[in-house]
From TrEMBL:
Taxon lineage: Eukaryota, Metazoa, Spiralia, Lophotrochozoa, Mollusca
Name of the protein in question: NACHT domain-containing protein
GO MF annotation: an example: ATP binding
Domain NACHT: 331-468
Keywords: ATP-binding, Nucleotide-binding, Signal
Amino acid sequence: MTHLANGIDLVHLAFARQFVTILRTIIGSMDPRGKTPVLSNGRAITGKLARDIGKAVRHSPSCEVTDSDLNDYFNTLETLLNDSKTLANDSNAQDAVSKLNLLRKESTISLAEMSQLLKDAHEALGKAENVTKECKSQMESYIEQLKIKLDEHAETLIKKYTKNFTEEANMFSEVRKANITEHANTCTVESKRLINEHANTCTEESKRNILEHALTCTEESKRNLTEHVNTLSQKSIQYIQGANSSKQESDYEHEVEDFVGRLKHHYKRKLSHVSISTLLPSGDESLNKIYAAPAICRVVESSGGKKTEIPITTYKEILCTGESEKINKCIFLQGEAGMGKSTFASKLVLDWCNQGGELTSSETFVDANTLQEFKLALLITLRDSVCERDVTNMIKEQIIDMVYTDTERNDAYVMLNKIMRQELCLVVQDGLDEWKDLQGKLAQPIMLSCYSQCTVFTTTRPWKLTDELIKNSQIDSLFELKGVRDPYELCKSLLDSFGCNTLKEFEQYVSENELHALLLSPMLLSLIVSSWVDGTRLTGSRCDIYTVLVDALFKKASEKISFFVQPPFVCFQNTRYLQHNFEHLQAIAKAAFFMLFSAEREQSLVISDRQLSHCLTQEQKYIALKTGIITERKCVSRTYQTSTCSFIHKSVQEFLAAVHIAENSATLLVVSRFFAENLNAMFENQVFIFLCGLNIFLANEFSRIIDSTMNTKFLLSLYIAGFIEAQANVQNPNDIDLKLSRFNVFDFDVDDNAFLRILQMNKSNAKLLEIYLYSRNILLPPNVLHGLAQLKDIKLEGCECKGLDLSSCHNLEIIDLCGEGITLQPNAFNGLAQLKTLTLSECVCKGLDLSSCHNLEIIDLNGNRITLQPNAFNGLAQLKTLTLSECVCKGLDLSSCHNLEIIDLNGNRITLQPNAFNGLAQLKTFTLSGCECKGLDLSSCNNLEIIYLRGEGITLQPNAFNGLAQLKTLTLSGCVCKGLDLSSCHNLEIIDLNGNRITLQPNAFNGLAQLKTFTLSGCECKGLDLSTCHNLEIIYLHGNRITLQPNAFNGLAQLKTLTLFRCECKGLDLSSCHNLEIIDLCGEGITLQPNAFNGLAQLKTFTLSGYECKGLDLSSCHNLEIIDLCGEGITLQPNAFNGLAQLKTLTLSGCVCKGLDLSSCHNLEIIDLCGEGITLQTNAFKRLAQLKTLTLSACVCKGLDLSSCHNLEIIDICGEGITLQPNAFNGLAQLEELKLDECVCKGLDLSLCHNLEIIDLRGKRITLQPNA
């Protein structure tokens, strides 16, 4: 070991230490990892080696170093200074090398030179610190750009720091080289000692400062870098999340747009063309060219069951209802077969697609923009999904699977579910009548509740809506499609498509053959037009029309023409292609029958090819497919290829099924069982109508089955259609015998002749006859109802029948006749022993006598053209209810109707015997209005509960009501009764007596403990005392002939409402009526005790007008809300309203009140004070924060200030006695209307009343600020 003092000068050692320390700091700043090499003369000297040398020199505990180590240190420094790339050619560096060599030889430098060296070293350290700060700033700048390219910027930072290091190192080396060269030879041993001591001190301090500063900078840099990286990370995450959300939304919108585009393309291809005629399904035409405006009406049912039809012409009227135009969620469009429901549904969807062009008629359903509110319109044909119960599955099968490939469908299903949950969608269900739940639990397919944004538009036949499973609440709107608005417009379009210009000739043909009714159905219309173009003449028979259709279709199988020698049916007589295909026709008809009446209802319209093979051979199926009578469609399957088969149209299937029945009478057993299990199935098809035209004998038998198994109001229209069809097919009239027991006529378009013919057929069978016609009358011959021996119920409205006689209908139980067109024979009801209910309204009947109808229970006669015999009701012991209105009856006597419970007689042409009601012990309700009855006495009607008598022609005995212990309600108006006494009617609850010809005993109401409501108007009653009627709640007395005892109301603790008008009562005191809520006293005949209202804590409304009351004080009536006092005879205490915290409205007119103060009535909203006798305190309205309306007229108030009434909206002040403060209206921000007239106000300022709309200032004593 060589001590530093013996080997090398301390000055040189200090210099070496400082040099190494600076080198370590620079290298460490360049590369914190310590792994970046510095290339020198081809050898790698790492930053770690330089740091090790620095540590060895600085931290030597004994300040000693070995010779070999010291030599290595010099070699290292010398190698650095001789670097070939940077310092080899630098003269200063080479001088430094020379000086190092001198150090090896122990040369010295002076103390001054050493001091200068240390100073230079300190400056170098400062520069190094500045470099560190600069690097930190640059690092922060570069870190901000890491979110773009962290790696690139990190590399840039390294290059930047390397450059700075090289520059500083060069600078430092040059300084050291110059100093070493200048002072190497002048150092002495003493100088080395002194410098060594000073150097040790400076070095340790410098080391400490540098280390502390380095640590501080390093920690701050690390912290700033960490914070920035974290911030950048959070922002990056947020940006990525936002980008993901935006991308998801964008993807969703793109997917929806793609789906809508595919859907519209699908609809355009599938729906834009329709067949012109069922004769030629492949002969289609653009829907827009042959589409005719539909006749659609909204069906509205009133609370009374009457249906009103309102025509509609826009989509908006279908989709929306009410002023709010809220979109309906469940809409039904009903219509008979062939009326164009499916075509309308297709046109609706095409209009949503914007594919619909100009229609022939531009006046209806042109608001296609209404449909654009829906994101999707989804059309599903229910007949194609009879085995499905879920709407979404139907959409998948009929739409998704048609517009997406196998690999896309799963994603499409998910997207469909999302759209139906979030977006407004229109789901069109076509043909609900052709779908039925296999489990029998649903009336319509399931639409999940989560699809609350979806509107469901359903088409169906009317019979389907009679299903009990369809509740009224499930139908937001009901519409009916009645065909086309203008049939001839459609005829013209069809003829034009055929290239024909023969519309006038066609119209003449339709008129001659009475085919106009068939033209309302687009299907039948197109068939008739097509037949016309082909030269075929039709007779109006449905069988003829469908025979032509089937005959034309069989032409496709074979064009060989042959005719029937003896046709099986009249309508087959002129066919050309059926005779040689008859066996095929029979087989197809059999298949139609078994499908239609299959026990498995889902197979009635669409069956699989496998199931069809049970009915048809392959040859027969081939013929059926070739003719087009049956169609076949492939099914989506991943195993075997399958298909479904159906008839070209349901009505064609029904016609062929009827052909099979007509040829096979045994099939009626199958039909009868079918209808027994499916009671409403009759209205699903036209089989019965076709059968009437094909085989009337089987139709007659069929009608018996129908009548015995079905109980519905819709059968008559079906029978009428069948009857007309039988006539059109030239069936023998004597052979037509359709059986029907229930006749319900409510169809506007019923065929009167057919109805009457069917009724005549069933004289021995008819049990019910109901005719309700509102738009027209049906003419009934006088004898049409003669001999209906089984008839039990008859209701006629909208009929004309002169001389009606029902006396031969011995089993009648209910008769209801309404209308001026009905006239009755006097003995029209003679002998009707079973009759229980009779109602006549506006009919004509002279001398009516019902005395032979012994079982009558209810009679209701209305109309001034009905006259009754005096004994018309004699002997009607079962009669319970009698109502007569405006009838004519002289000397009516009902005393023999012992079971009468309700009597209601109205009209001045009814006169009664004095004892007309004697002995009616069961009578409970008795009403006379306008009748004439002298000396009426009801005292024997012990069970009477309600009596209502009105009319000047009624006079009562004084004891007319004696002993009526059950009487609860008594109303007399305009009657004559002297000395009436009701004290024995202990259960009376309501009394209402009106009329100046009624006089009462003073104690007439004594002991009526149950009385709750008491009204007297115009009657005469002296000394009235009601104090014993403890349960009275309402009293209304009107008339100057009524005088009251002062204590008339004492003890009426339940009394809530008291109204006295023009009565007389001296010293009235109400203080004991603690529950009074409303008091209304008007008139000069009543004087009040000063404390008359003390303690009325429940009083809410108080009105006095014209009364005399001195020193009135209402301060104890804490719940008062309304006070209205009018009259000069009323004087008030100054504190009369103190503490009335609930008071909202106060009106005083003509009263006297000095020093009125209302400041304690905090809830006042309306004040109206009028009269010179009212003077107000200056702060009378202080703190009335709820006050909205203030009216003062002719009052006296000095220095009025309203600025604390912040909610005032209307102020109307009039009178010279009122003076206002200049700032009286300050802060009234809600004030809208201000009227001042003749008030005194100096310097008025309204600038803070920002909401003022009306200002009306009058009077020369009002002055305003310039900026008021």
